[in-house]
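During the second half of the funding period, the structural biology subgroup turned its attention to how the target accommodates small molecules. The most pressing case was 1,3-dihydroxyacetonephosphate, which had performed well in the primary screen but for which no bound structure existed. We therefore specified the complex as follows and requested a full 3D prediction, including the ligand pose.
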Amino acid sequence: MLKENYVSFEIGKTKKIALVAHDGKKKELVEWCDRNKEELSKHFLCGTGTTARLITERTGLPVKGYNSGPLGGDQQIGAKIVEGQIDFMIFLWDPLEAQPHDPDVKALLRIAVVYDIPIANNLATADFMLHSQYMGEVYSRKVENFNKTIQDRVEKMK
Ligand SMILES: O=C(CO)COP(=O)(O)O
């Protein structure tokens, strides 16, 4: 039963990492990326517009930039998660500052949980993730089998 409701996704050794930080946390994330640029350079990096630009300027690492968060960047990253294009995310959201796009922030965090994406919301977690043995291995994460869910729902509606 459990088996048919879940499908597993294989993640290669090169991870696709999303990097996002609110304004009050950007300096922290940029400095963390600089300290860890050797490890990060082994992976594919992307991020919301301003965060991506600042990381590239400081570290020289290529970071594919989406729109700025308040202009839809969080949603673009959420869509990439749904498409299987992101393996894990470092998202330093600011617990002390209200955001105009709070619904987008929530949506991104929610969809990352739905798709079993590891998420670091602070640098301590980011450190643990980056130094995990799984970084150098192929890893399988399990997500609900959405085709099965749709099929079950369609059956119920009949
Ligand atoms: O607002 C953000 C995440 O919610 C981040 O967007 P920027 O990187 O464009 O500032």
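Two results from this model are relevant to the next phase. The first strand starts at residue 6 and ends at 11. The chain has one domain: 14-136+144-157.
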